[in-house]
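Following up on my earlier thread - several people asked me to post the actual chain instead of describing it. Fair enough. Here it is, all 222 residues.
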Amino acid sequence: MPFMLQGVIFDHDGTLVDSERKHYQLWVTLLAEHDIDFPETEYKAHLAGVPTHFNAEYLVAHYPLPMSAKALFAQRERLTQEAFGKHPCPLIPGARELVEWVAGKSLKMAIATGAAPLEVQPTLSHYDFGRYFPIVATRDDVINAKPAPDVYLHALKHMGIGADTGIAIEDSPTGLRSALAAGLPCIVVQNEYSRGLDFSGATVVLDSMQEAQEWLAQRYSL
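Reply from S.P.:
Thanks for posting it. Predicted structure:
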């Protein structure tokens, strides 16, 4: 028998909002300034769903960039503020329906993300998600970003529940490892940037938010 579900924790980028293409294009823009062509296939394989500072470390290690990872990260942060700080990314298909359905089941809800608060705020305000997510754990709330468990542990603490009564919804191997490290079971909903990657340890790997809703309803008799 599955445990009694008390709370659901959603990742943000790639799970609630379709942001990976925008993230990829920012790297393309930045690397083009150094005459570097950055293929989307490489982004999908190594950088999608990975915190930005790890992206910067990877790129400095693999490309002839005349700067440190810290300096590259700082440049990227400026672009991120311009691109994400004012306008929301499109919702993942079925995300609103799943969020509203979970809320309707009187389950506790939170967001746990490797993103900065400024990237999440447009989602909360534009789509009126703030009323569903009283707890938003971002990279600014913790010392270690995903795949460390910190953001999930932070969310669980403020939700007042244990990992054994919650579940995470993720889209990337990095996020999955973070949830598992926090002791959470994890649903993976693949998207075009993560499909086919290694999701070992996931409770279930699905292809849509609609499937996630159906799975939760059946698994926990909701």
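The radius of gyration is 17 Å. That should answer part of your original question.
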